[in-house]
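seq:
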Amino acid sequence: MLKARPWMSLLLMLGGALFLLGLCLVSVCGLGAIVAYTRWSDSSGMVIVAMGIGLMVLGLLTALGVLVYGIWLDRTRHKGPQKTLAPVQVVAAYVLDKMTQTTVPYWQDYPPEQVRFYVRLRLPNRQHEEFECAPEVFQSVGEGMWGEAVVQGNWLCQFRPAQLQRELYDTNLG
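struct:
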């Protein structure tokens, strides 16, 4: 799964709020400006209408920019240079249904195109990172295993279990 990016959600909501505020300004003040112009030939209210249109455009551009960036992040999540990480520990391995984003305990009963496989690893710097992987790689990992991981972006390309004991890894992790 993609990393949580709360700033993207905030920008998306901000864009929507700016658009709605601009829409309210244009509709309410636009009606008032039309009435003022037809009665008294006063067009000063059109400045507020122009500001409302500017807010609408700014809100739309903000929301669309965040949406395009999110789609780009999703499309490029498995790209980047390959890195070998060692020693790593498998913290969790689970399968999610693509449609409902719920954990699937018996993933063999599902069609392969309906599920996604994830492995959470404890990296050498003691941080936890989640990687998507192929079913073959998923079947080669077990929770609690130690080994070496080859990753590319957020994709776990390969996991090689270690022959050494955990104590040796604990001394390497410091």
